[in-house]
Description:
Helix content of chain A: over 70%
CATH topology of chain B: Cytochrome C Oxidase, Chain A
Low-confidence stretches of chain B: 1-14
CATH architecture of chain A: Up-down Bundle
Number of strands of chain A: 2
Distance between the termini of chain B: 17 Å
Largest sheet of chain B: 2 strands, antiparallel
CATH topology of chain A: Four Helix Bundle (Hemerythrin (Met), subunit A)
Number of domains of chain B: 1
CATH superfamily of chain B: Cytochrome c oxidase-like, subunit I domain
Structural class of chain A: mainly alpha
Structural class of chain B: mainly alpha
Order of helices and strands of chain A: EEHHHHHHH
Mean pLDDT of chain A: 91
Number of helices of chain B: 17
Radius of gyration of chain B: 23 Å
Strand content of chain A: under 5%
Shape of chain B: globular
Oligomer: heterotrimer
Strand order of the largest sheet of chain A: 1-2
Strand content of chain B: under 5%
Low-confidence stretches of chain A: none
Amino acid sequence: MSHAGHTVPAPEGFVPHVVAHHFESQEQEYQSAKLGFWLFLCTEVLLFGGLFAAFFYYKSMYQADFVRGGELLAWKMGTLNTVILLASSYTMAMAVRSAQLTKKKAMLNYLLITLICGAGFMVVKYFEYTSKIHHGFLPGVFFVPNAEALIEFPGLLDFPRLNLFFALYWTMTGIHGFHVLVGMFLMVWLYWRGKKGHFHKGHYMPVDLVGLYWHLVDLIWIFLFPLLYLVP
Amino acid sequence: MTAIPATPVEETQPIEQKNYLNVTKTFMSWAGTLDHKRIGLMYLIGVTFAFLVGGLFALMVRLHLWDAIINPDGTTTGGIFTPDKYNQYFTMHGVFMVFMFIIPAIPASLGNFALPLQLGAKDVALPRLNLLSFYLWLAGTLMAIASMVMGQIDTGWTFYTPYSIYTNKAVIMMGLAVFTLGFSSIFTGLNFIVTVHKLRAPGQGWFRMPLFVWAIYATALLQVLATPVIGITVLLLAFERLYHIGIFDPHFGGDPVLFQHFFWFYSHPAVYIMILPAMGIISDVISVHSRKPIFGYRLIAFSSLAIAIISFIVWGHHMFTSGQSELALFIFSFLTFFVALPSAIKEFNWVATVWKGSISLEAPMLYALSFLVIFAVGGLTGIILGALSLDIHLHDTYFVVAHFHYVMMGSTAMAFFAGLHHWWPKMFGVMYSRFWSNFAAIWIFVGFNWTFLPQFVMGSEGMPRRYAHYLKEWQGYHQASTVGAIIIAAGVAMMVGYLVMSLFNGKKASNNPWGGATLEWHTATPPVLENFETQPIVDRDPYDYTLVIEAARKGEL
Amino acid sequence: MTTTEATTHAAEPHDDDHMEAAHDHHVCSIAAFVVIILSLLFLTFVTVLVSLFDFGAANMWIAMGVAGLKAVLVMGVFMHMLWDTTINKLFFICSFLFLGLLFLFLFVDMVARSDLEIIHGRAAPLNFKEMSEQSAPDSAEYKFHSQFEGK
C-alpha cells in the first residue's frame, strides 16, 4: 500500500486534490468528512439547545418580565438580520453549487456576497448592541436602565427579572454572533483557496462543509429571532 | 478443549524490525504524529499521570481522615489539613480523576490504539482531529494545574451553585479546563463514530466487529451528544462569576436546581462514557482468556446501545434531594431501574462465557474476574441508590462514595488495567513479569475492597461525605479505609514498576500471545506504521477460535 | 478470522472513477434554491405578521412551528439533507430528539414544582418555625431554626 495518497486529477487550470493516505478512495474520504461534520453540527445543536432550554425555563417562570423584555428589543433590526442571513444562506448554497460545477468565478462571487451579508449582519448587530448599552440594558448585575431609558420605556422597574432576560439575550445573541464571525473567517479562507483553484467538480468538499456550518448558523438564528424579539 | 499455554515465543526475525515505535525517532515525529497508535501512547502517558496525581490527592484525603475527629462540643482534633484545604483536595481528586483520567482513559488510549486495528483500518478517519484531541486534553490538563496554582477550587467536582459563584477560588480557570477537556472528548468520539461507519475492512459487517468496538461506538455517541451541555454549563458558570448574569444565582432570580439539571444531563451519560468502554474490554478479554466465543454477542452489542440511550433519561437521580418536583423525582427513579437491565444482561453473558471455558489466569483475566465481582456490587448498590425512598437517606453519605468507587475504580479502572495488560504485548512487543502482574492484580483487588467495603457500612449508618471531620464512632471504618488506600497505592506502584521494567528487559512477545481471534492479533507485534502489511479481509466472527487453536496445535502461535 | 492477501491498491490514479464519484453527488437546480429562498422570506413575513396578534398560549407554538418549517426547508434543500445518506440525516435529527429529552424533563420538573407556586404567589411560603413548633416544640429542629429568628 502506498504511503502517499493518490491524486485526483483536476480540470485545466485547477489544483489536483491528494486523497489522504489512509482512505481507500476519494468517495470514502468525502463521506467520512461529511459524517464527521454532521456530527460536529449535532454538538452545536446540543450546545445552543442548552441555552434555549434555559430561556424556556425562565420564560415560563417569569412570563410578564420576559414579555416586557421582548418589547424592549429592536424587532425591525432583528427582521432585517433574518432577511440578511436567509439571503446569505441562498448565496452560500449557490457557492457550493458553483464549486460542484467548476464555475470558479461564480463561486468566488457568491462567497463574497455571503461574506458581505455576514458583515452586514454584524453591522446591524453593532447598532443593536450600542443601543442596548446606551440604555443600560446589560446582562445580569449590570442591568441598570438609565434615566433616558426609564422615560422612553415607562414602568421598567416594575419588572425585577429583566436582568435575567437580558442576560440570556446577550449570551445567546453573543455566542451566535461569535459563530457568525467564525463563519466569516471561514468564508475568507474559502475565497483565498478558491482563487488559487483548489475547488472544482473533482474536489469541493471544503466548500460543502463550510456551507453546512453557515446554514447551521442561519438555523440557529431562525429559532432565536422569534423567541427573543417577537413578543406574541 | 485443552488449555493452550500463553507463553511468548522467541521471534526469529531480525531485532530492529521497523514498526510504529521505531520507524521515526525525532521528537517532532512524535509531537506531530498522525498515527493513532502513537497518539494512543501519548494519551496513555498523559492519563497515567492524571491517575497518579488524582491518586495522590486521594491518599492525602484518606491520610487526613485517619483521625480527624469532631467532638460533641464542636472542637476538632487530629487530621492534617484545615477544612478549607481538605475541600480543595477532595475536589482536585474528583476533578483529576473524572475529567483527566477516567473519561478519556480507555477510549483515548486503548481505544485509539486498538480500534483501527480491530477494524482492519490503516488509521482513524480523521487523524489530524485525533492529534487535536490530544492537544486539547493536554491544554485542559495544564489549565487544571494552573487553577491549582491560582487558588484551587473547593466546590467539589460538581461545582454546585450558588457556592461556586461566590467562592473566591479559581473556578473560571477550572471551568475553562473542563470546557477544553470536553471538546477533546467530543472530537475523539466524533472520530470513532466516523471510523466505525466508514473504515471497516472488507467483509466486516456490524455483527463481525469485536464487542470492544461496539462499546467504544456507544461511548462515542454519548461523547458527541452529551458533552456539549457541560460545555455550555461551565461557560454560563464563568459568565455568572464574571457578570452575575443571574442564570443560576437566586439573588438575581436564577435557579440553582437548573444548574444541577444541566450539569447532570451531561454527567450522568458521562458515567456511562466511563463504564461502557470498560465493559467492552471485559467482553474481549473474557472471551480470549477463556478461549470461548462470547455468549450472546448480539445481546451484548445491543445492550451497549440501550445503556447509551437510557442514560439520557435518568440524570435526575443525582438530584433526589435537590428540590425537584415530586413528579420528576418519581419519573427519574422509575426510569433508573431500567438502566440496570442491559448491564445485568452483560454480567450474565460474561459469566456464561467463562463457564466451561479454558481459563488462563493471566493478569488481564484476573482483572476481568475482579471486574465481574466488583461491578456486580457496584451496579446493585446503584439500584439501591436509584430507589427514591432509600436515596433520601443515603444521598451525600459514604454509601454513594462507595458505590461510585466500586463502579468507577473497581470496575472501570480495573478494566483499564485488564485492557492495558491484554494489549501491552501488542503495543510494545514485550511481556511483563507473570508473577508480579498476577500478584499485583490480587493485591489491588484485596486493597480495593479493604478501602471501600467499610464505606458502604459507614454510609448506610449515616456518615456524610465531604466532611473534613467526623464523629468518633466512625473512626474504625475510616482507619480501615485509609489502610486500604495505602494498600492500593502500593499495588499501583508495583504495577507501574513491573510494566516499566518490561520495557527494558521484558521477553519479546509473539504476534498473538493470548491466542486472540480479532484482527489486531494477526499483524506484527508491535504493528507496522500502517497497521497491516496487506489489507485484511474478514470472513469469520471475532470470537471464533477454531483457526487460532489449529495454529497453536501446529506450533505456529 | 483469517487475513487473506487482498489485491494491494497500487498508486494508479482511478481517474474516471473518482471524477464520476464526485460527479454522482446531487447538484441542486437553481430553481429549487430560488423556490426555497422565496418561501423562507415569505415565512419570515408570516412570522412577523403573526406576532402582532395575541393567540394566548398558542403564541409560542405558532412561532416555533413556523420557525420549524423554515428550519426544515433550510435543512432539506440548502443543507442537501433530502439527498444525503441516511446516517447523516439520522444523526442530525437524533440530536434534536435528545435535546427534546432535556426540554421534556425540565418541563416536567417545572410544571410540578411547589416552590414555583410560592414564587407566583399562588401558595403561601413555608413557615419553618410554625412547622417545627407543630411537630415538637422541644425538638432540636425547633431550637435550630429559632436561633435564626429575627436575623
